[in-house]
Amino acid sequence: MNKKVLVTGASGHLGGMLFKSLAAIGYTNLIGTDLKRKNIVKNQKFIISNLKNFKATLKMTKNIHAIVHFGAIPIEDTQQNILHNNIIGTYNLFEAARINKVKRIIFASSNHAIGFHRRTTRLNELAPQRPDSHYGLSKVFGENLSRLYADKFNIRSMCIRIGSCLKEPEDRRHVSTWISYRDLTQLVNIGIKHKSIHHEIVYGASKNKKSWWNNSRAYKLGYKPKDSVDKFNINLLSKKEYKDKMALLFQGGVFTSANFIGNIKKIK
Ligand code: 15L
């Protein structure tokens, strides 16, 4: 692919991984952006910018074919920090993309957009959103924003509800949530290239037997995960989450129990 693709969050964990892995599978015209330049090879195009700055975001999205949007705070934070970085930052990016006629956006959503669903409930792409944190709420916002911009302005989008994307699984929870770097790269590649997507929600998970998610929509779009958590020795994974009884009930784990003063029984 030689069309211009902008990767936001390109100095971060997953944005940085994708900036490299997309190049490795044949993307020849990638541009990275982030608040600072970190772990970026010298000849890679990179813009230091802040998505909160609309003017700069507008300039940066000129002549871009697709955006891989991973630039955000990746965990729970204060309501103000999430509002400004994740919500306003994402809104600025979509609006700039609309003005500049960007064709597609791949949005890094998260399992925390559906984190208050019980672990006994199997979800597909039509499951109601159920954020478990300010962070999760910003992902719900991004999913709905991308739906509006697809329906109204014809910007194609794919939202990937990423589980736990790590080199290798680390905790027992990952038996249900893990996705490998190469499987996430495959999903992003589908989002950029698939001919007929309009607005899609898929789960960012490898082929895990104990998954909580029915990812048949992703499979219909051609996703064939190459990895599975089941190949790892589960007994070697940490049991950190086991100390938190509430976390064990809900898909979002410790994001649900943090600062919780609600009534667990009412969350059905
Ligand atoms: C996420 O969305 C976070 O970015 C990551 O740090 C993990 O907490 C992950 O979800 C997860 O649920 O494991």
Outline of the structure:
The protein has 8 helices and 9 strands.
What does this structure look like?
It is built from eight helices and nine strands. The longest helix is centred in the first third of the chain and has 21 residues. The chain is globular, with a radius of gyration of 18 Å. The N and C termini lie far apart (45 Å). The protein has 268 residues and is an alpha/beta fold. The structure holds D-galactaro-1,5-lactone.
Mean pLDDT: 97
What class, by secondary structure content?
alpha/beta
Over all CA atoms, what is the radius of gyration?
18 Å
| Individual helix count | 8
The hetero molecules present are: D-galactaro-1,5-lactone
Gross morphology = globular
For the terminal residues, how far apart are their CA atoms? 45 Å
For the largest sheet, list the strands in their spatial order. Answer: 3-2-1-4-5-6-9
Helix content: 25-40%
Contiguous uncertain segments of 5+ residues: none
Count of β-strands: 9
Output the helix-strand order: EHEEHEHEHEEHEHEHH
The biggest sheet amounts to: 7 strands, parallel
Which range does the strand content fall in?
A: 15-25%
